[in-house]
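Q: Predict the bound structure with 5-O-phosphono-beta-D-ribofuranosylamine.
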Amino acid sequence: MIIVFISGTGSNLNAICNAGLSSSIACVISNTPHAKGLDIAKKYHIPTYVVDNKLYTNKADFERELIAIVDNYTPKYLILAGFMRILSGDFVNKYHHQIINIHPSLLPSFTGMHAQKQAFASRVKIIGITIHFVTDKLDCGPIILQAVTNIDRQDTEDDVTIKLLKIEYIVYPFIIRKLLNNMVDIRNDNYVIVKHEKMDKDILNNQNFYVAY
Ligand code: GRF
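A: Predicted complex:
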């Protein structure tokens, strides 16, 4: 089972559910009370929790509440999908190699907020997304998968954002399924090994991006 953490739209949550993984989601946790993603969870009959960070005076109390919910389910992985809070080292270390994030850039380029905007402003020709394990260093954990595409000369910043999201909707469920099926291992040197399967081609071939995992 997984728990999905959201803050807003939940379009990745929607893609994960659409890919047939809703029954693997123990619950969805949002740190914002009016996140649209909560409605998506309800549509799929997934239990939802709001832990509003604004109601806590410090991060430790906020995270204590998150931990109480998580430990009630003992999920295999915590999936960050548009979750806009930075988790503390204590939290991350408690769930060592269990927290996964998707970031809209080719890490280690463009860490932090507005990665698509940063890429667009840098006039790079190649853009992409990274799925990685979360560690106590922001956007720096062991990389599970990266997918790349190009910026065309006529692309606007919005086009770039949409291109990246479309990739995310395919590769995030793809990797979550592999995680749930014990097909992802981290070597001691932090290189992540993902088991390849014949059926991968059906999902990834003929897409408008190149993927490495
Ligand atoms: C994407 O930019 C993703 O890379 C980042 O959050 C955005 C998606 O949010 N982690 P959502 O899934 O639509 O809420």
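A: The chain has a mean pLDDT of 97.
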